[in-house]
Specification:
- This protein is of the alpha/beta class.
- It has 5 helices and 5 strands, in the order αβαβαβαβαβ.
- The model has no long low-confidence stretch (mean pLDDT 92).
Length: 124
């Protein structure tokens, strides 16, 4: 939403005024707020290399979100992530086909996130 900051104040507005069920964020403090307010907190990570993967694993262990969203949607890192963390993993970003959705789900992702409405109600 335009005009809402991606910080704790924006999260409070979403929770109190819009009564959202959960928030996807890159901010650990917003995940903490979600826990306190009893809404789902999903941590979003952008993986660009092994260093960012290792940093993400360390942060997930510390913050303990309800779920993890990994971008871009590459199935290969899922097996490595699952060795170190114990939360559901969503894959998102650059998903362009039903086959890509199926590959992500077969790799261990519990769901995918996409803005491509043609992929929202696909049967896999």
């Amino acid at each position: 939403l335009k005009g809402i900051s991606n910080d704790e104040y924006g999260a409070i507005y979403l929770i109190q005024e819009l009564q959202v069920d959960g928030i996807i964020t890159t901010k650990p403090r917003v995940i903490d707020l979600c826990k306190k307010r009893k809404v789902i907190g999903i941590m979003r990570f952008f993986l660009k290399d092994t260093l960012s993967l290792n940093q993400s694993i360390d942060l997930v262990k510390k913050v303990q979100p309800d779920a993890l969203e990994v971008l871009p949607a590459m199935a290969e890192p899922i097996a490595n992530l699952k060795k170190f963390i114990d939360c559901p993993i969503l894959l998102g970003g650059l998903i362009q086909s039903k086959d890509h959705v199926a590959h992500c789900l077969k790799s261990g992702a519990v769901a995918i996130t996409t803005s491509d409405e043609t992929l929202w109600n696909q049967t896999i």
